[in-house]
Amino acid sequence: MRKKILQMLMVLVLVIPITFAGFRSKSTVAGDAGTNQGQALIIDPDAISNVTMHSSTGGEISKFNGANQTGPQENRWGGGDLQTWASEGNNIGWRDNNRTYMNFLNGAGMTGVGYTRLKSNDGGNGKIIDNEVLTLNYDNVGMALKDGHYVTVGADVKVSNIIYGSESGVAPNTNPYIIFSDNLYSGVLYGGIKAMDINFEFYDATSQAHEKIDFTGLEGELSFNSLNGNQGGNYIESTEFAGDGADDGQLSDGTILSYHKYADQNHWYMNGTYYGWNGSFTYKDDDYLGAKRFPVATVSFPLSGTSNDFTFGSAWGRAWTAFSSSSPFPVQQSAPTKTVEPADNSQGFDQRYDNDLDVFGLQEGSKWDFSNPQPGHNPDDNDLAAGVLPKNERYVDKGGSYYYYINQPTINLSTQGLVLPTGMDIFDDLQDGTSVNGIQDVTLYGLDGREIGNPFAYNSQASGQNIHLILSDSAVNTINEQSKQKQYYGKDFTVRIKYHVDNDAPNLIQNKAMSHFTYDNNDEFYAMSNKVDTQLRPDPVNVSFTKYDSVTSKALADATFTLYHKGEFVQNAISGADGQVNFTNVAPGSGYTIQETGVPANYTDPYNGRQFNVEITKDGQIKWLDNVIQNNRYPDNPIQKHYILHLDKVNADDAHALENAEFKLFKLDAQGQAKELETVTTTDSGVDFKTAMDPGTYQLQETKSPAKFDTLKGTFTFKINEFGRPEKVGDDQFKFADGDTHTRKIDDPESFKQISYDGDDLPFNKAYGLKVAEVGEDHVEKLQVTIPDQLTPIPPVPDEVRLPKTGGNGFLPYLIGAAVLVVLALIVGFGFRSRKR
């Protein structure tokens, strides 16, 4: 092939399904975004292999490091010596390895063989290099489908039946050569060579056994591109050709190629191949990737099994040959992707794939329908960027405005097809409860991210729920021209639609879009996007719980708690007298934490200020995730105290303090044996024990009662916990000496249960019990135990032992008479004084 295009690179990619000329449907619909478009093999344009080559006849093999490209790169169709640069006089320049052929990937390097014992002209119209077989291995060429999944693949390549011969316009002493780029995508360059057979076997590079990739049933295609003929004279002398030995090649509309079972006797190596007269196929206008008529010089062949053979070459004797699977006729577009974003000034082309409001799969517990999640924005992963919310916290609000993005891939000229569409339009029917105000709220971005002016035809529609966007001719041309540039192969153009959530919107809003493409030959294709879901924001709720004393279970006031959302302060709440902590108007979602930031006096937080996790479901349910709050209660521990014990002995009848009662204090050891600690005697203000009440179990016994009172026969028991507070040891069914429990008459039921008595002679008094209390004029907190006692009853005297009555009335009658006389004298004296006045 003479004067090959500068930008065109070798491509070997299988496209499935291939659309055959004469058999393809005129209207085809692609699946949703994310479905496999059927490419069984993708040759990576940037994959560089460590290529090994072996020549069975000992051809001189050389490696080129690819440091410099050679050739007039600014000239797409090259110069006259485009394929002769490797010659140095009469010998090939294998020793100059600091270069790369201009149409190969720069920096990839090359691996070549030179037949220095042969001269091209000695081959005449074509001679086989006897017994020569080249075997090459590429350890990385791209990806291929294996068992429904893509794997990294290498390639084993075998070149045989190599025919050398005269090369027109080149010195007769030139040596034949074949040079492969270390980037398989870039292809093969040859000179002094008329034809060769080539076999490809692709293998799974991730398997130790290098398992072959089997393309049976996948209907893959291998295309030979830019099969130029001479622009004048006898075209067969300079044409390029390709074939697989059968008339099974697929040709584009308007092709310049045709199948020839037999060529003339001077070109016997072209039998069973496709070639043609290029006529109006010109180098400048047509012979480059993306040109409108570039497909007319392309033929595609079917691939199957694990091994595929082809013949290719140039009657001219030198060429750079390109392989691809890009179809020579219109192919199905890849499906568009649909995303949804907040509508603010920062949301432009760069945010088109973020999809930060999509909650698809939330209800079902499944993953996104979106096939192109961006790092830090995929809610199905745990590693979200700052400010990106998980699915269950993504909401839209009634009256709010948002953006739908529709990202439509273009035809990848290097891997999909060689024909570009002439018409493009987008359909999007919005769900009831959402609407768009007009075409002015729709933006079209090109592949380079810039807005395209005059984007839509006059008959486009964007009103209410109905959206039909017909791209203008100028917009289609802009997109097609950009798609011809290598950096934009297969890239997306983007439509951004600003829509509104109305007051009658449903709780779940679902949407998907469809694209439509037409071609000059009346072919048309439809492609459906993925589905995106958004949800309305639910009503806020109050989050509340009770703060309580872990020992007494009493409500605690003045505890301060702070609510955070993903580390950011939300609000504070302080417990009231009833212990209630209440955070108000909290939006449902996850990522909430609560922390006790202010502890009541004489208490400690048992969790030491740890933040614990809370989740609020959409239906307002509160989920305490760390089991810190149970039954909507949060404890605080009283600060550990070492109280002394204060004993009050009281009269059961009137609660007056009793003096001179003697009590002994014991503490039980680990074996339950009682050890005496001290003995005290009560006063009219009670009595303090000197022993500090460390945690443990204690007993009290009355060993001497006050005069005229009974000595209690039983033993009192109480237990001090790790905080120095008494624990429950008693029973509210305990019966006093009168046989009654007096449950409703007890002053403090808790203190009543914090001491037990094993006797049946304890009289009832409502103050009985053990508690922490302020005792004395200095109001010092102590463990106060109040124990009632009762006067010893005096037995009645029997009648038979009463003494008889003796003697008279004594002087009592005289005393009464004297008193009467005194009263009379006073009355008479008072009356006399009144008359005298």
Automatic annotation (TrEMBL):
Q: Which domain of life is it from?
A: Bacteria
Sequence segments annotated as region (Disordered): 329-348
- Transmembrane region(s): 811-832
Q: Does the keyword Secreted belong to this entry?
A: yes
Tell me the keywords, alphabetical order: Membrane, Secreted, Signal, Transmembrane, Transmembrane helix
Family matches, as PANTHER family: COLOSSIN-B-RELATED (PTHR36108)
- NCBIfam families according to UniProt: LPXTG_anchor
Name of the protein described by the UniProt record = SpaA-like prealbumin fold domain-containing protein
Traced from the root, the source organism's taxonomic lineage reads: Bacteria, Bacillati, Bacillota, Bacilli, Lactobacillales
